[in-house]
Amino acid sequence: MRKLLISVTALLYAFVSEAGNIVVGTNFAEWAFLGTMNMEAGYAFSEKWSINMHTVFNPWNFPKGNGENIRRRIIGGDIGIRYWPWYNNSGWFAEGKVGCSSYNICGITGKGSEEGERYGIGLNAGYALMLGKKINIEFGAGFTGGLKNYKKYGCSPCGRIEDAGRKPFLIPDDIMIQLVYIF
């Protein structure tokens, strides 16, 4: 996964190092979900197309009591291509993406926990509202599906494995209320 993130970063840097329409942003909806740090960078390489890279990181543990925690530990990223029917960074968009993440989730939907890696593709749609010449707010949502290698534990403190393996997944993804700055 680290090699993929380094490769994606190098690819994005190659696009960004040339003069052009560069954007950076952060998603407030992810910050609100247990403090998940995130950043997006993008480059509009034509009037209707842009390439975007999104990264997330959450190292936090929130004590729940009885030795249990609530957590959404995650490190991951994805790279996507957006199509803008009107003009890049304004109005509606549709995005296809590929990505991967390493995760450890506990106490959000029950007593158990799950950890593993996910690899998948996704589709998103959204709207970029222009607040000014250099500032946008983007709203959007999407789905990601693919394969995950995982271990499921009955309870976080006991470490008893209930299920493990590889299986497909489909999850809602990229709930977006994102502030974007355009260079």
Report on the structure:
The protein has 183 residues and is mostly beta strands. It has helices spanning 2-16, 28-32, and strands spanning 21-27, 37-44, 49-58, 61-65, 68-83, 91-106, 113-130, 135-153, 161-182. Strands 1-2-3-5-6-7-8-9 form an 8-stranded antiparallel β-barrel. Strand 7 (113-130) and strand 8 (135-153) form a beta hairpin. It is elongated. 28% of the residues are buried. The model has no long low-confidence stretch (mean pLDDT 89).
Which descriptors would you attach to this protein?
mainly beta; 2 helices; 11% helix; elongated; 183 residues; 9 strands
Summed up, what is this model?
With 183 residues, this protein is mainly beta. It has helices at 2-16, 28-32; strands spanning 21-27, 37-44, 49-58, 61-65, 68-83, 91-106, 113-130, 135-153, 161-182. Strand 2 and strand 3 form a beta hairpin.
